[in-house]
Every structure is written in C-alpha cells, then in structure tokens.
Amino acid sequence: MGKAIEAKDLNIYYSAFRAVEGVNMTIRPKTVTALIGPSGCGKSTYLRAINRMHEVIPGARVEGKLELDGKDLYGPGIDPVGVRRQIGMVFQRPNPFPTMSIYDNVIAGQRLNSKKLRKDATDDLVEKSLRGANLWNEVKDRLEKPGSGLSGGQQQRLCIARAIAVQPDVLLMDEPCSALDPISTLAIEDLINELKMDFTIVIVTHNMQQAARVSDYTGFFNIEGTGKPGKLVEMDETKTIFSQPKEKATEDYVSGRFG
Ligand SMILES: Nc1ncnc2c1ncn2[C@@H]1O[C@H](COP(=O)(O)OP(=O)(O)OP(=O)(O)O)[C@@H](O)[C@H]1O
Ligand SMILES: [Mg+2]
Q: What is the pLDDT along the chain (259 residues), one digit of tens a residue?
C-alpha cells in the first residue's frame, strides 16, 4: 500500500478541447499532495485521469503517461476497473448509497468486486475500515441503519471507509471538505494525517489553510484564460510553495492576490 504516481507530459482532452496540458509530476508514496489553483484550471480533470475515471465521459481521452510505481496505468491489457480499485476516490459531496445500511456501504466496493468473504471476515473488514476512517465509535451500535441517517461529516467519513475497505494504494480526494462544517473538516484533516501512514493521498482543495495544514507537497495549477488548457505551474514542498515559491503566479495565488 502507498505507491508512487508519476505523470509524464500528460495532456487531457474533452473531445477536441485540451483541458490540461503538459503535466509532469511525481507524487511520492505515503505523502499527502495538495492540488490548488483557480476554478476551471483542470484539478478535477487531472485527478480523474489518474484513476481512469476521465475516460468514462464520451470523447474524453489522455495523451502522455501515468504510472503507478513505474507501471503504465494506460498500458495495453490494463483493466480500468482494476485501476479504480487500486486508486480510490472520495468526492466533494458525500455520496453513500442512501438506502443501504452503514455496514453494507462500507463493503459496497468489495461486493462490486464480487469477492466472496465469510461473515466474520466481512465483520472484521467493516470494523477495521470504520476505525480507519475514525467513525467506528459513532456508528458501531447502528451498523444496520441506512447511511443517509448520518451527518454530512459522518457520511464523508463513511465514504472514506468505503474507499479504504478495498485496500487501495492511493486515495484521491476532490474537495472532500467543501460541504462540511469546520469541526467535521478538522476531523477529516486529522484522518488524512493518519491515513498517509498507509496510503498515498492526493487532495484538491480551494482552502489554502487546509493545503498548508494537511499536505507535504503542493502543486499549483493555473489557466491563462477561458478556452486555454490548465497547466501545472509549480510543485514543491508545501512550506516552500507557501513561503517562497519560484513563480510569481504561485505567490499571487497563495497570498490571495489573484484575479
Ligand atoms: N465533462 C466535461 N466535458 C467537457 N468539458 C469539461 C468537462 N468537465 C470539465 N470540463 C472543462 O475542463 C476544464 C477543467 O475543468 P475541471 O473541472 O477539471 O476544473 P477544476 O480545476 O476542478 O475547477 P473547480 O475548482 O471549479 O472544481 C474546464 O474548462 C471545464 O469546463
Ligand atoms: Mg474541480
């Protein structure tokens, strides 16, 4: 668990529109990388390209290379479903299956992967995943209740439990706290800090304080204008990006002097 990701000369398209251009990025194993940048610069697009969710959109494709520990994620014979299992994703809005119980939500990925587990093994996996997501104590007495009965912050932690239950190598998080209150946000940030012991984490955030608090490395994406592709301007250790970035555009963005 916890593998490296490497993007090489990556271009990402929606049909003829090049949304992201020329990304070269190394994401180190068992670190947290924050992706920041203005709306429309391609952060979500890039994230979805990493686990091959981009290509489910008709006309969407990538050029260049994406590797997981040196293995070409877009190589011939690579099953995109397997890639999505190895590289899990948590979205902006918590999206538990609403009528499914908390218990079944946690193992939903496992069921989809049609792995048959014995009841006691499943019980163990549910407990381990919920503990991993810092949710166990809050839900252990109501595992059979629907996932929709939880608070927003709890639902997001349930989605994280679901994502880690399939034991991925990488967790991609696209603004996972933007629908949450400050307390739930801090709970997720603490959790990210713990999860990086086992997983490589990439988080998109518009919250500069969050990027500074939670990440080891930060990549700044920017866009020159409407219709232009987003580009990775600069990536470095988070403290460098926030204190002495090399590019003026990065400094303007992190200091709020943008636009
Ligand atoms: N399904 C799609 N079809 C066509 N174009 C798309 C699609 N999704 C995104 N785009 C375009 O790709 C570009 C990058 O969008 P993306 O959602 O990746 O930006 P973002 O950096 O995540 O923005 P935000 O911070 O607002 O979430 C934008 O110009 C957007 O309009
Ligand atoms: Mg986005």
A: 789 999 999 999 999 999 999 999 999 999 999 999 999 999 999 999 999 999 999 999 999 999 999 999 999 999 999 999 999 999 999 999 999 999 999 999 877 665 677 889 999 999 999 999 999 999 999 999 999 999 999 999 999 999 999 999 999 999 999 988 888 899 899 999 999 999 999 999 999 999 999 999 999 999 999 999 999 999 999 999 999 999 999 999 999 876 5
| Residues whose CB falls within 8 Å of the CB of residue 114, separated by 6 or more in sequence, listed in order | none
* 155 token code pair: 């639902």
- Beta bridge mates, 67: 6, 72
Q: Among candidates 73, 61, 63, which has minimal Cα distance to 4?
A: 73
Give the DSSP H/E element, type plus range, for residue 13.
strand 5-14
Query: How far, in Å, from the CA of 19 to the mean position of ligand 1?
Result: 7
Look up the pTM and report it: 0.94
The CA 39 to ligand 1 mean position distance, Å, reads 8
Sheet of strand 200-204, all strands in order from the earlier edge strand to the far edge: 71-72, 60-68, 5-14, 17-27, 230-237, 217-223, 32-36, 200-204, 170-174, 87-90
Q: Which residues contact 150 (CB under 8 A, 6 or more apart)?
A: 96, 102, 139, 158
How far, in Å, from the CA of 184 to the mean position of ligand 1? 27
Phi-psi region of 9 (alpha: psi -120 to 50; beta: other; left: phi over 0): left
Q: Which of 10, 44, 18 is nearest to 227 (CA)?
A: 18
From 20, 21, 43, 50, the mutation candidate for ligand 1 (largest count of ligand atoms within 8 A of CB) is 43
